[in-house]
Specification:
Elements lengths: L1 E4 L2 E4 L25 H10 L8 H4 L9 H8 L6 H9 L3 H18 L6 H19 L4
Helix pairs in contact: 5-6
Amino acid sequence: MKSYHGNTMVLRALNTIKQGQQCFVNRYSLRYDAYPRAERARMLVAGGLSPCQCTACRKDWTPCSGDLPWICNGLGIEPTDFRDVVKEVIGVNIEAAKAHLPRLISLLQQCERSEPSGSALTLKKLIAHCYVIFGNKRLL
């Protein structure tokens, strides 16, 4: 994921990178959770680019809804309180982001091998929002 600290772009891996593993950076915002593989490929080719060879494209990942009770249990909250956590993190609550980030990362590490599980996708989005908040906190 990328975030900004002033005019500096910071790239951060949300999954563990193993030695010798190839890394892909999504520079075109054609995420597998937003566009089907055929549409992503069509847009890349239309832009004069080669089709993507990332794992999500090669294996034709499609997002699923995930296991919300498992995520909530890991965060120590009731499923009915999950929406509040999302609102805090997306709502630019720096203290909430600081409090939730370590648990979100720990949960992602537990489920990253089962990607493209919806749990991993949900956790990545929340983690990305935390880092965006941290990068933009000087502007608040």
